[in-house]
């Protein structure tokens, strides 16, 4: 597995070794021992989530407050998304910086997002099936977020404004200046 560093410490992109032949392909999508040795840090994932969305959907920017914050290992099994992680760790030199990466069934890339980040994605294909592992269970009382179109972040979601679809709940998320953060 190839590890790609991003401009933000602890935020990584993984490219698995894919074995293709005339029957199809095979790759190891997760191996705890390999991941831990590559990162020199241990993650213990306890929950897997999956969503299906159509073109133009933006989900996010979501996170859970401490002590229930989550690290996530993300991949796309069908379609293509633009995945974004925003550093909300107040003592980080990259506080409020963000990284976006295209994840697709074709490129098979994965995105490791540590605790202390807001996360969201936009769907660039007709549909996308999105999967991610979490190292903490979902706690509704710890749910928090930042509205996807906060101008101080200036995220280009790769979707025309007139094509954007988001949930009523996500439209109520605050801008950064009013968001709860405790990382």
Provide an overview of this structure.
This protein has 183 residues and is mainly beta. The chain has one domain: Sandwich (Jelly Rolls). The protein is 7% helix and 40% strand. It is built from two helices and 13 strands. The strands form three sheets. A six-stranded antiparallel β-sheet has the order 1-2-10-7-12-5, with no helix packed on it. The longest helix has 8 residues. The protein is globular and about 50 Å long. The two termini are 30 Å apart. The mean pLDDT is 95. It is an enzyme of class 5 (isomerase). One of its GO terms (biological process) is dTDP-rhamnose biosynthetic process. InterPro entries: RmlC-like, RmlC-like_jellyroll, RmlC_Cupin_sf. Homodimer. Belongs to the dTDP-4-dehydrorhamnose 3,5-epimerase family.
């Amino acid at each position: 597995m190839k590890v790609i560093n991003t401009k933000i410490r602890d935020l990584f992109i993984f490219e698995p070794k894919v074995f293709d032949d005339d029957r199809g392909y095979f790759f190891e999508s997760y191996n705890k021992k390999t991941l831990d040795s590559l990162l020199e840090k241990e993650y213990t994932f306890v929950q897997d989530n999956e969503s299906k969305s159509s073109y133009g959907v933006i989900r996010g920017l979501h996170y859970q407050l401490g002590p229930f914050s989550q690290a996530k290992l993300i991949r796309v099994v069908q379609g293509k998304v633009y995945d974004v992680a925003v550093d909300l760790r107040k003592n980080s030199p990259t506080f409020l910086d963000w990284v976006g990466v295209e994840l697709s069934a074709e490129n098979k890339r994965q995105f490791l997002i540590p605790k202390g980040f807001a996360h969201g994605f936009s769907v660039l294909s007709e549909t996308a099936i999105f999967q991610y592992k979490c190292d903490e269970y979902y706690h509704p009382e710890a749910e928090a977020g930042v509205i996807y179109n906060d101008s101080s972040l200036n995220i280009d979601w790769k979707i025309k404004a007139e094509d954007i679809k988001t949930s009523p709940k996500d439209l109520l998320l605050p801008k950064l200046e009013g968001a709860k953060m405790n990382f």
